[in-house]
Specification:
7-stranded antiparallel sheet, 26% helix, Alpha-D-Glucose-1,6-Bisphosphate, Chain A, domain 4
Length: 155
């Protein structure tokens, strides 16, 4: 049996599904909602909104500063969006109407990565899970209050 190479977390947010999707589909909000503290800014030429096949660059910092270019590889309007970069792993968001709001599931999927074992040995699945929990908390705050008022929730 193949090893599952995905970690996910979810949160029910008292906001409209499409409104939440629109926040995530706007790459300029990624540094704002990022709970890992690694996404520091958008690169020049960001699309206003992500769509299937869209490419977008981010300035990152994990110890050293670096740049990454992502490509949207899954897109279902209002329901699902995922992107990957040159290493092949994916970040996926799924949105589902539930009682009380919208369930948002964020997944780090390294089953498609070029260096699966290296990601595991470096501890990325566990570290990314903590960051994703913080990201969903920040998405909740932004969607329900219109701003993020503190660093609470940043991993």
């Amino acid at each position: 049996m193949a090893k599952e190479r995905k970690v996910s977390t979810s949160r029910v947010i008292t906001a409209d599904r499409q409104a939440l999707f629109d926040i995530v589909a706007d790459p300029s909000t990624h540094p704002v909602i990022d709970g890992s503290g690694t996404v520091t800014g958008g690169r020049e030429g960001l699309p206003e909104r992500l769509s299937e096949g869209a490419r977008f660059g981010m300035d990152m910092k994990a110890g050293a500063s670096y740049r990454i270019t992502n490509t949207v590889v899954e897109f279902e309007e209002g329901t699902r969006i995922a992107w990957r970069h040159m290493s092949g792993h994916r970040w996926r968001y799924e949105f589902r109407d539930v009682d009380g709001g919208t369930e948002v599931v964020e997944t780090f999927d390294w089953s498609t990565a070029k260096a699966k074992l290296a990601l595991e040995l470096a501890g990325f699945p566990k570290r990314n899970l903590t960051g994703m929990e913080a990201t969903l908390a920040r998405l909740d705050e932004l969607a329900t209050t219109g701003e993020i008022t503190s660093d609470a929730g940043t991993a």
